[in-house]
Amino acid sequence: MEKLVSSWSKNKPLPESYIFPPETRPGNLIVPTCKTIPVIDLCNAEGRNRTDIVQQILKASQEYGFFQVVNHGISENLMNESMDVFNELFEMPDEDKVILYSEDPKKSCRLLTSSLNYDREKVHQWRDNLRHPCHPLQDCIKHWPQKPIRYREVVAALSIEAKKLGLRILELVSEGLGLESGYFGDKLSEALHLFVNHYPPCPDPSLTLGITKHCDPNLLTILHQGDVHGLQIFNNEEWIGVEPLPNAFVVNIGNQLQIISNNRLKSGEHRVVTNSRVARTTAAFFIAPSEDSIIEPAISLVGEASVYRAYEYKDFLLDYLSHMGNNEVVLGRFESQSLNNGTPVNAPPIQRGPKFELSRLDHGSDYPSKPKGTLE
Ligand code: OGA
Ligand code: NI
C-alpha cells in the first residue's frame, strides 16, 4: 500500500528507484506535435462511408498500428461519468484503497503499482493500476470495487459499450483484410480486461516513465486517455505524441492481430510519459482471445509463406512475460522459421504456473525494465 505512487509521492523528490537508464528515459525530448496518428470518423461506418472508413482503418493499422475514433456511438455522458468514477477511485483515502490493493496474483481484481514485477524489476514505473476482467460480466462484477458506489454500474455500462465498439472495429478490419464477416468474433475476441492507469504528477518527467516501451499482447485495445498528454508511439524511429481529443477513443493493434494478419497490420510500440502538473488517468480495454484459442495467420493472407506458426494464446502470454515485453524477441519466437520454436538448446523450459496465474497476465506492459543498454 505504501508502494502506491498516489499514496506517497505528493511533494516528494523522485526516488532513485524510478530513474531509468539514459537510453530509455524520455529526457527533455520534445515530441513532434505536427505529426499525429489518424483520426477516423465512424459516423456512417455502416452506411455510405463504409468503404472509405475501412480503407482509413487499414492504412492507419499498417502505418502506425494506432488510430483514434470519433463519432463511435459511445455517449459523451457515459465517457465522462466513467472518467469521474476512475478519478474518484484514485482520490479515495488510503483506508479505501487498501481494500483493493493486493500483491496476490490469484486476485482477479486488484490495485497495484508499476507492474506485476514490482519486487524484481530494476526500475519502477510511475503509475498505479487497477485491473480486472470484464467478461463474463455476471461472474466478474462481484469482484469489482464497491467504492466509489457508482463504480460497478458505470463501468459495466462502459465495458459493454467498449466491447461492442471493439467488435465493430474488428469487423471493419476483417472486411479490409478480405476475411469473412465475423472472423474475429467468438473465441478470438472472447476475453475483455480493463486496466485503469493512474499517473500522479511527477517531480521529474525527464527521468522516468509511466509505462516503458511495449506492444500490447492481445488482439485490439480501446483506450480512453482523458484530456492529458502522456501516450507516445514509436514510429519510423521517432516518438510521436497522441493528442488527447475530447470524446475520442485511441485504438491500437495488438500482437495477435499482427500475427493473424500475417504482418499486414502492425502492433504499434508505445510508452507513457509523465508530467509535473496534473494527474493523468486512463482506461484501457483489452480485447483478447480466450486462453485456449489457437492463433495462426488467416489462410487467405498467407500467400507464399506464413510468417508465423500456429500456437495456443496462453503460450504467447507466457513468452511475452518471460521475454520482458521485448517485441522483436517475442514475435520471433512464434515465427514459422524459428528453430526449436526459438528456445536455445539446453534452455530450461518456461515455467508454467497454474491456470489462475496465467489469467492474470494477459494484458500489456507487465514486464520489468530491461538491463541498462539493451533497449532501442
Ligand atoms: C497500457 C497502455 C496507455 C495509457 O495500459 O498498456 O499502453 O495512456 N496505456 O495509459
Ligand atoms: Ni499498452
TrEMBL record:
InterPro entries: DIOX_N, IPNS-like_FE2OG_OXY, IPNS-like_sf, Oxoglu/Fe-dep_dioxygenase_dom, Plant_2OG-oxidoreductases. Residues 354-365 have a biased composition (Basic and acidic residues). Transmembrane segments: none annotated. Residues 341-376 are annotated as: Disordered. Residues 190-289 form the Fe2OG dioxygenase domain. Pfam families: 2OG-FeII_Oxy, DIOX_N. Its cofactor is L-ascorbate. GO terms for biological process: defense response to oomycetes. Belongs to the iron/ascorbate-dependent oxidoreductase family. This is Fe2OG dioxygenase domain-containing protein. It comes from Gossypium armourianum.
